[in-house]
Structure formats: structure tokens, C-alpha cells
Amino acid sequence: MATYPADKNRVLNNHYSSSANFYESDLMLQDFLRRKLSAEAYESVEGRLEQMGETAAREMDALSLKADRQSPRLHKRDAWGEAVDHIEFHPAYHRLMEIAAESGMFTVKWSPAWRQRYPDERHLLSFGISSLYGLAETGVYCPLCMTDGAAVLIDRFCDEADKARLLPAVYASSLEEMKTGAMYLTEKAGGSDVGATLAVAEHWEGKTYALTGEKWFCSNADGDIAFVLARTHSDDTRPDKTSPDNRRTAGLSIFLVEKALPDGKRNPMDIIRLKDKLGVRSMASAEIMLQKTRGTLVGEEGQGFKIMTAMINLSRVYNSMAAHSASKRALMEAYQFLRGRDTFGRNALDHPLVRKKLEELGALNTACFYLVWRAVEALDSEDEKESSLLRLLTPMAKKWSAEIGVYLTREAMELTGGIGYIEDHIMPRLMRDVMVLPIWEGAGNIMLLDMLRASGKSEGLAVMLEHIARSVSDPVHGSWVKRESEALRAYSKELFAMESEAMQYNAPAFFNRLTRLFQMSVMIEARDGANERWIDPALRVLRRQGEGETLAPEAVPSREVIEDMLAWKA
């Protein structure tokens, strides 16, 4: 009589293992930081990287699941009917914020000791830690982005008294002392069109103004330090949507709005409701009505949009890193699953179609890694060429990483089968979270317009093409890079000679090819004996994609090649 083989009725085999420390597992990140950071800086931050990697792998998933399932709740009034507008978070959210504070991701960037010691490595140090955080939690990554962005504006544009009072609270290593940032930009009428801002600011006294108007998407609505755009010029309060952008943003000023007034009372503003979002549910996004809310003018009147771009541009790099971290986590979860899964009589990684898909996803992950980290490198540089490059690279990286992050995550979910679609698994949360990244901080079309502006108003395109030209000597891909770059250079002259509508319509194909070629040039420049095992296969895939589908037969990559290109040690 047949007996039921209960011991064989398992999803995973005995060879399954998952990472216990994301930093120790991430060979690509280790290699990059060791090469890019000075020996002293790396030695100083290594312990923080190890600790963040372990905490992200061992503790944060359970916290993220709880914070995601039990989203923030808004309490409008207290028992006596008084307006309180209190946002209640699950304890898991507070622990996630505490982990961020304790990690030192802001300490290494903003504390005077670290700034003085490593002035040209601050972003590399900070993003090194926060990228590991992003492997486990995407929702809270938004408030952290807002906090870092607020610190940029405080440091560059606020007076010395506010700097001395607020910056230490940003890089505090305890949650009790930490103040988080927020950005109130978007309005119903305008959306991405900031020039359509209707909120107004009336002078109160000194540098204090009273702000009135509705802000439609306020991320980190419970933030202690918000930067808010409003109009200070009465003749610009009803902007003409057909007028040039520079005229429509000329009346905008920016204000530092704190949750509490100097006397401890609540700064008057009405939280209308919290957004019921598809993803990133752990953090609070809200609609807020400013009701003569007190704000301190930052910089000069009329310079608000120009000042705010410093925060927006950093936010776009954060968006890129969030896309990379979340989609990388999805890919590595799929890889670990497949390595421990037997199907049709053999391990899943031994099936050619599985290896073909992992080859594609691994190449895209590698390309995303080097593109995003190249932007981080440029943030740390004072060089004029690097600044020009960053002006174009920021919207490029934001657009490409967000779009490819969604694709990578979806494909990784499919590789895990039905289990990856069940909410017990991390995949559904990752999938819901990455869906917002093409929208946040400017949708894809806005990024294309920004790339066009950057190409026309800065040397960014010339610097990028110059960077690409350094790769023409590569013995494997150099001749192809040369042909592609010459074609792009010739077409750029034709593109930028077009009238506006034709230029915009034809821009996507140009920038898609430019992005791929720039990614290849960055990887060629980074390649050495230690990392060629993941860079070389990625270059082959990107070139194949650039050449288009062919019917020429290709060799099936071995399992070892696939595992090497994923650069992940569980």
C-alpha cells in the first residue's frame, strides 16, 4: 500500500538559506564602497554598515509588515471636542524611526565632527547606510528623505540661530531628540505644475508670515520641520497657466513651518485627511489646510522655487536609491527562493529559462546600481563638470530607476510563483511600495522635460557624452560604444533644433539610448578584476538590448555565471 510522503511535501529543500546580514551579503555594495571611500572613512563607517545590514536582515521585516498593515490613524478631536489633529502610529513605526536614528545615516553626513573629517564623502557615507535600510523598508524611507532634504535647506539658507537649533535635531542618534522633515509643495489645481501654486503668505512681523491655502500631498505629515511654498506677491496669486514657467514661479517664496510654535502651542493647520495609499502605508501622507499658519521666510521673497529645488533634487536621488534598494531586495528574495526550490526533478536554477530571466534582471540591477551611485558620487563633488553632469543625471536616474524598479519587482514576484503573491511574503509589500516611485518627486514626463532643460541650460549633455567617449577604447564594447555615441551626438543637434512640441515628442527615444550608453560607460570605467564577474555579463545584456532582438543563437549561461552576476552571498 502506498504511503503519503509527508517528509517530501515542502516548498523549500534543505539547501535554502537567507541573508542574516544584508551588508555582508551585498558583494557589489562592499566592492563599491571600499573602492570609492578613503581607507579612513571606510574604516570609520564599516561598523555602522555591518550593524545596519544585520538589523535590516533580522529585525526590520517584521516591523515593516506591522507598520504596513496598521497604517497611521488621524484623530481630529479630543474628548472635549478640541481640534488636536493627532496622527497615531503603530509602535513598529516608531521602532523603524528609532533604527534610522541609531544607524547614524544622518550623523555621518551632518554632525560637525564627520563633516570636518570627511567633507567630500558625506553622501557616500550616508547613502551607504540608508541603502541598506531601504532593502527592508521603503515607506519610512520617505520621511528620512524629507528629513535629509530639510537639513540641506536649513544648512544652506536658514539663519545661524535656526541652524544651531535644528540641525543637531536632524542628526540626533535618539528618536526622542530627533526632528523629522517634510515638504508641502503640491496643490490640487497644479499637481506637478508648481507654478500653479495658490497658497498665499501675508507678512506678519519680521521674517514671520501667515500662510493660507490647501496643500494636496504632504509627505511625512507629522514632520516637525516642513518647508512650504506660498505666494508673497499679490499680483501672482492667480497664475496664468499659459505664462512662462519663470514668471509663474517668480512670486513663490519658501517658508520654514514648524509643528509647534515657540510658546509650545500647536501651529494652526487643519489635517483634512490621511491619504489611503496603494503602498508605502507605514508613513503618513495628508491633505493639509494652512490656516494663517506661522512660517519663517527662508531666503528672499520670490526665490522660493529656486531654493526648493535643492531639496527636490536630493529627493530625486533618494527616490532612485529607494527604487534600487526595493527592487534589489525583490530580486535577491527570488534568487534565494529559487536556489532552495526543486521543480521537475532538479533545482530551479538549473532550468535554462530561469537562468535567462535572472540574467536579464541581474544585468538591470547592476546597471541601476552603478547609475544611482554615480549620482551619489556627483553629489559629493565640488567640481563644475560634476555639477553639470548631476543636473542631467538626477532626472535621468530618477526616471530609469523607478521604471525599472517596478519591472524588476514584478518579474521577481513571478519567479517566486503563487507564494510571492501572498501577503505573508515580502513581495506584495515591495510591489505596492515601488509603484509610487515613478510618480513621487516628478513623474516620467516631468523628468524628460527636466532632462531637456538640463541639456539646453547646462553642460550636462556635453559632460555625459565626454564621459561616454572615454569607453571607446574598451577592447570588447568600445567600437559599439563609439558608433552609438556618434549617432547620439549627431541626433542631439537635430533634436535640439526642433520646435518645442516636436522636441518633447522625440525626446524619450534619445534619452533612453543615452541612459543605456552612459550606464555602460560607468560600468566599463568601474570594472576591475574583483567586479568583472558581475559587470561583464551586465554589459553584454545591455548591449544586446541596445542592438535589439536577433535570431542569432546565444550560449546558455551557466549557473555559476548567473550567481556571480547577482553578487549576493546568503
* Major β-sheet profile: 5 strands, mixed, barrel
Kindly provide the name of the CATH class of the largest domain: Mainly Alpha
State the CATH architecture of the largest domain.
Answer: Up-down Bundle
CATH topology value of the largest domain: Butyryl-CoA Dehydrogenase, subunit A, domain 3
Average pLDDT score: 94
Q: Which residues form runs of ≥5 with pLDDT under 50?
A: none
- Strand proportion, as a percent range, falls in 5-15%
| Alpha-carbon distance between the two ends | 42 Å
Bin the helical content: 40-55%
Q: What general form does the structure show?
A: globular
Structural class, from secondary structure content?
Answer: alpha+beta
Order of strands in the sheet with most strands = 3-5-9-7-6
Number of helices: 21
Radius of gyration from the CA trace?
Answer: 24 Å
User: CATH-wise, what's the superfamily of the largest domain?
Assistant: Butyryl-CoA Dehydrogenase, subunit A, domain 3
| Number of DSSP-assigned strands | 11
How many separate domains? Answer: 3
